[in-house]
Amino acid sequence: MEAKGGATTAVAVLLLLLVVVPEACRAERFVVGDAARWTWGYNYTDWVIRKGPFFQNDSLVFTYDPPNATTHAHSVYLMRSLAEYQSCNLKAAKLVAGVMQGAGSGYEFVLKKRKPHYFVCGERAGLHCTAGQMKFVVKPKSSACRD
Ligand SMILES: [Cu+2]
């Protein structure tokens, strides 16, 4: 009887901990595309749906090889608007990480602002964005734990 009561108490404490410490309180680090990394032809919109939701102060890590004889060069740009994102129009886009910055452990972008982030690859004048599917939108949610 006593042992059963102890087990019940342990379960109650565990449940309390789960309620008090929600998972979203921790900032997380995501490697964009996981094993596929940042590359031509991968569906990053699906990746975002699988990995989300994202929270403020989470970080996205872009890893890609520097230009060489066997791989395409890649880069990371932020679009200013949904329209520019949809059309892959890079004229007003902001360079976030150049072709060399994805090497090694990659380029880490911290999602500091609670606004839509329109990420695209800017190579080949937008071709990697249009035909290569190298684009995705992330809108971090706020978390009471981080405010
Ligand atoms: Cu690219």
From TrEMBL:
Domain Phytocyanin: residue ranges: 28-142
Pfam families per record: Cu_bind_like (PF02298)
Record flagged with keyword Signal: yes
GO molecular function, a single term: electron transfer activity
Domain of life: Eukaryota
Alphabetical UniProt keywords: Signal
Identification of the protein by name: Phytocyanin domain-containing protein
Organism: Brachypodium distachyon (Purple false brome)
The encoding gene: LOC100846584
